[in-house]
C-alpha cells in the first residue's frame, strides 16, 4: 500500500522512469493529445466526462510528487491571461509561468523530453501546462 497521494499506477511508472529534465504535459479536454504530444511518451487519459478531472486536480497531485523546475503554459494570441493561471501560480509557488503561443506549446509538447502526457476533462480553455522535472537534492 502506498502512503503518497499519487496512486495511479501508470502515472507512477512514467514518473519513475523519467528523470531530471523530463517533461510532464497536463492537458485540457480540448487538447489534441494524440497528435500534439510526444508519441513515445506514456499517455494517460483521465477525461472520463467533461469537468472530470480538472487540470488543477491533476497538477496538485503531480506537483506534490515531483520537484518542478519549470512550467510552460499555453497563452492566447491576444495576450490575455486565462483564469487558470491563478491556479497554476497557487499550486506552483515560486515557479514562474513561461508563456508560449499555441503552436510553440504544441511543438514543445511533441519534443523528445515529454515523458508523460495526461488528458483531463478540464473545460477551461488554455488550461494546458508542461512541467519540467527538477532534481531531488540529497539530504
Supply the key terms.
RbsD-like fold; globular; six-stranded mixed sheet
User: How many beta-strand elements?
Assistant: 6
Beta-strand percentage range: 15-25%
Question: Strands of the biggest beta sheet: in what spatial order?
Answer: 2-5-1-6-3-4
Query: Which shape, going by the Cα principal axes?
Result: globular
Per CATH, what is the topology? RbsD-like fold
Elements, N to C (H/E) = HEEHEHEHEE
The overall number of domains is 1
Helix percent band: 25-40%
CATH superfamily: RbsD-like domain
What is the structural class? alpha/beta
What is the element layout, followed by pairings?
Layout: H1 9-17, E1 23-27, E2 42-45, H2 55-65, E3 68-75, H3 84-91, E4 97-101, H4 102-109, E5 114-119, E6 129-133
Parallel strand pairs: 1-5, 2-5, 3-4
Antiparallel strand pairs: 1-6, 3-6
Structure write-up:
The protein has 139 residues and is of the alpha/beta class. It has a single domain, classed as RbsD-like fold, CATH 3.40.1650.10. It has 4 helices and 6 strands. It has a 6-stranded mixed β-sheet. Strand 3, helix 3 (84-91) and strand 4 (97-101) form a beta-alpha-beta unit. The longest helix has 11 residues, at 55-65. The mean pLDDT is 96.
Structure in a nutshell:
This protein has helices at residues 9-17, 55-65, 84-91, 102-109; strands at 23-27, 42-45, 68-75, 97-101, 114-119, 129-133. With 139 residues, it is of the alpha/beta class.
